[in-house]
Design a protein that fits this description.
heterodimer, A: about 550 residues, alpha/beta, Glucose Oxidase, domain 1, Enzyme I, Chain A, domain 2, TIM Barrel, 3 domains, eight-stranded mixed sheet, eight-stranded parallel β-barrel, 22 helices, B: about 80 residues, alpha+beta, Histidine-containing Protein, Chain: A, 3 helices, 4 strands
Amino acid sequence: MNALAGVGVSPGVGFGPGYVLSREVPVPDPEARHGGDAEAERDRAARALERVAADLEERGVRAGGQAQEILRAQALMARDPGLAVGVAGLIDAGASAARAVYEGFGGYREMIVGAGGYLGERAADLDDVRDRVVALLEGLPAPGLPDAGARPYVLLARDLAPADTAALSREVVAAFVTEQGGPTSHTAILARAMGVPAVVACPGAASVVAGTEVLVDGFSGLVRLDPSQEEVETVTRAAAARQAVLAAATGPGATSDGHAVPLLANVGGPRDVEGALRGGAEGVGLYRTEFLFLDRTVPPTEEEQVAAYLGVLDAFPGRRVVVRTLDAGADKPLAFLPPPGREPNPALGQRGLRLFQRHPEIMETQLRALARAGLQSSAKLQVMAPMVATRQEAAWYVAACKEAGLTSAGVMIEIPSAALRAGDLAAEVDFFSIGTNDLAQYTLAADREVGGLGALHDPWQPALLDLVLAAVNGAAERGRPCGVCGEAAGDPALACVLVGMGVTSLSMAPTALPAVRAALSLHSQEQCVLAAQAALAASCPPDARAAARAHLPELAGLAL
Amino acid sequence: MAQRQITVESEVGLHARPAATFVQTAAKASLDVTVAKQGGQPVNAKSILAVLALDVRQGDTVVIEAEGEGADELLDALALIASAP
């Protein structure tokens, strides 16, 4: 298939000729000599160094911010007096200007690389300056960008540096595609600021043949090579429609006929709050507190915990914030709380609430810190326990929460036994939150840490959908709310199915919020119920998907 | 010969922004100025490459030296940059 797939980090569709950014400037021949006029050659080298310095400085001024800092330091490298002396000496000994520049930088490069760490990274800055000067002296195109063409181009690269992108604008670039990087990489941030579509973590991007026509969907992360005219039109039209709908779908989550479904964010600490607010989260449905406990030899103090909880609570005054108490063990071992013995299968071992039962002092401190934070904030604080298997465990946890002064305590439904006996558990707790990722792992007996079992973790697996329904019904018998906070909640089609089953709130990665909000707003509660019935009647994930989508007609038009 | 001994307080040491500012300030002066790690070989303080290669980290002590008219003022300015947190 003539397509690549990555992670969409800046929405929109870009189409244009592909240009692969190369930093490769050939090493000047060690034997390269100048014609004999050393003075003229020294002059040529000096002018090339100064021209590159001035160019870097100018790019910096245009870029501003952090990029300007880096570019300013690079300009200083090109103007370095020690380097100039070294280069002149090499030319006097007969070397060509290009070779002299290459060798002149080489000595410093070795020392800088030898230092390692942060300084080692600066070697890339030095190489960039050196290559620019060498290219200029050899009459080669500068490493980096082509001049603006008749049409904006799609820039493909292994990764992009501030110097590469500082001078770009959306008149020049149709889209970015990089092999490396993530949602917070330099490329992603820059692309969003420029309003240019971007896909990162896209293997093969830097191997695209220059001049190939490239179609980039910065939402889905799909990159098509040499697409047909029809494909371009379809994708562009769908993206435009999707953008219009996503932009129009604001406010609290609800179906088209007004059935409210709060849309909440999954966060891993105060640093995720900004993204949650940007996505329009109505609160937090899953605050993972592990970041406070991992990678340390002693548990965090109560004060430290209060500050971390307030960092999220204060961002959502008057709104719901559901904090999951420590979920350690399995793939997240704690240095200060090792398991009592070797665990051949840690996913089935001492983790989650089971760890609290062995170390109640850790739980008491966390619950006390949460209660204090709750009192200091106007957010509606709720707490929940991970890895609850039985009614007795739920009762024990809720009692500890109430004793600490917490008013709302619930449990996660992620073990099949808890889903099957949901009615019993509901009698003990204030709410449920279904963790579909672990529930899939335990229902299908497929370790999440083992590669090659992905198909068994498909959230459309019929047995998983059955257990979700059991949990929702168990909660409903007792009049308890039941949310979903796994990956499933962020899938627009499955989100509609979950609402059709009776799920009362959906919590997801903040970037998934706009699409789910739009999908819900385009379908009625009745359509969601029909989609849920159709999905539950199917006997395999592809059939369940297709059957549900038949009742959710607006999704296709949005390419969701 | 005027001289200052400074403990570098910046988290990034004498790299990144502090290094660039330090070198730019030194380069503006007409007199020669050197910087060395305590006990090490002095290098030209106007050379960003030499200063980076010194690999001065937070908590290291550096010695800066200059001679001539305005040496004290220049060293005071450089000491301020190098010791800034």
